[in-house]
């Protein structure tokens, strides 16, 4: 049943992408491609697209490493990672995160394990992105005032603390519910779900033992390639290529917020807005829609075609 749902949703994504390119605003679409043709080097655009694909594959390798299993297909994991990333890019309001957790439930021994490893991945990503951003901003004295802004420190502290203590908070509530005399269906449901989450936490902790440095290194590789997918922008504006790490980090951190499909007027727009405000490089934000459509859109379209081809040829291979 879920395969049919995925098929329908991917069809909607393809229709949405095509509709965005042709029907919403023909003038705006023509202007977008005209701007792309006049300002962007195809060579560096394909390098950017390649780097984004490599970043997604690197996420698969990190998940394979976190699974701590030897009898799993890496090829299938990469395929699922492509599907889940497309859902995350195209579904609005972070609904793609739920799709990602569901897609990996069999691969990671249930929804609880999948959800908890997703939280661990988010924690690793947040730490990696903030450290990259601090390193890049710290290297330029003009940005020190931004780093010293207490609001940024407070926000980062709240996010990291919440992600870190969430399992302990669930354990406190779980232990409190155990001694309760109520036999309501809601209490029993909470006990079952929270027990599964706590078991998943213990499994994940065991997986991470002695591997934290390795997984952090993989996380840096992931986000290094993800940031390099902005290289066609720095090339077009003829600015220091290292600015890709500021643009990439801000855009990725902005993606934690609810965003429209493909991040159009969402995460990329916010990320490039902050990048422009901090670096004082004019024109960055003009590339937000191009990045969303040409990088995210092409990736989602490629995944949809790959999915349809696999489903079409699979019955033929069985004959």
Write a structural description.
It is a single chain. The chain has 14 helices and no strands. 33% of the residues are buried. It has one domain. It has helices spanning 2-22, 26-39, 42-67, 74-90, 95-103, 111-138, 144-147, 150-178, 185-208, 212-228, 231-237, 244-254, 267-279, 288-318. The mean pLDDT is 77. 79% of the residues lie in helices and 0% in strands. It is mainly α and 319 residues long.
What descriptors fit this protein?
319 residues; single chain; mainly alpha
The helix content is over 70%
Unreliable stretches: none
Q: Element order, helices and strands?
A: HHHHHHHHHHHHHH
Number of strands: 0
Shape: globular
Work out the radius of gyration.
21 Å
Number of helices: 14
* Largest sheet properties: none
Average of the residue pLDDT scores: 77
Structural class: mainly alpha
* Strand residue percentage: under 5%
Distance between the termini: 23 Å
Count up the domains.
Answer: 1
Summarize it:
The protein is mainly α and 319 residues long.
In terms of topology, how is this protein built?
Elements: H1 2-22, H2 26-39, H3 42-67, H4 74-90, H5 95-103, H6 111-138, H7 144-147, H8 150-178, H9 185-208, H10 212-228, H11 231-237, H12 244-254, H13 267-279, H14 288-318
Helix pairs in contact: 1-14, 3-4, 3-10, 3-11, 4-5, 4-14, 5-6, 6-8, 6-9, 6-10, 6-12, 8-9, 10-12, 12-13
């Amino acid at each position: 049943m879920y395969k049919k749902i995925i098929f329908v949703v991917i069809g909607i994504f393809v229709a949405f992408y095509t509709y965005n390119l042709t029907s919403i605003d023909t003038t705006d679409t023509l202007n977008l491609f005209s701007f792309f043709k006049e300002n962007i080097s195809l060579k560096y655009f394909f390098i950017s697209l390649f780097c984004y694909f490599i970043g997604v594959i690197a996420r698969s390798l990190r998940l394979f490493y976190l699974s701590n299993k030897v009898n799993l297909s890496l090829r299938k994991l990469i395929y699922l990672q492509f599907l889940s990333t497309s859902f995350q890019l195209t579904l609005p309001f972070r609904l793609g995160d739920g799709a990602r957790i569901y897609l990996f439930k069999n691969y990671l021994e249930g929804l609880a394990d999948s959800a908890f490893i997703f939280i661990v991945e988010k924690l690793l990503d947040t730490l990696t992105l903030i450290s990259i951003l601090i390193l890049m901003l710290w290297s330029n004295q003009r940005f020190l005032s931004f780093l010293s802004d207490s609001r940024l420190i407070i926000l980062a502290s709240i996010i990291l603390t919440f992600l870190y203590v969430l399992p302990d908070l669930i354990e406190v509530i779980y232990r409190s519910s155990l001694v309760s005399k109520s036999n309501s269906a809601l209490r029993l449901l909470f006990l079952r779900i929270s027990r599964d989450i706590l078991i998943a936490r213990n499994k994940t902790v065991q997986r991470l033992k002695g591997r934290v440095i390795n997984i952090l290194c993989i996380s840096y590789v992931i986000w290094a390639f993800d940031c390099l997918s902005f290289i066609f922008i720095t090339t077009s504006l003829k600015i220091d290529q290292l600015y890709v790490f500021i643009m990439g980090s801000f855009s990725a951190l902005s993606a934690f917020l609810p965003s429209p499909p493909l991040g159009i007027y969402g995460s990329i727009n916010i990320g490039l807005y902050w990048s422009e405000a901090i670096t004082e490089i004019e024109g960055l934000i003009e590339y937000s829609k191009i990045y969303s459509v040409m990088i995210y859109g092409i990736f989602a379209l490629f995944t949809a075609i790959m999915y349809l081809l696999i489903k079409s040829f699979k019955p033929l291979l069985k004959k």
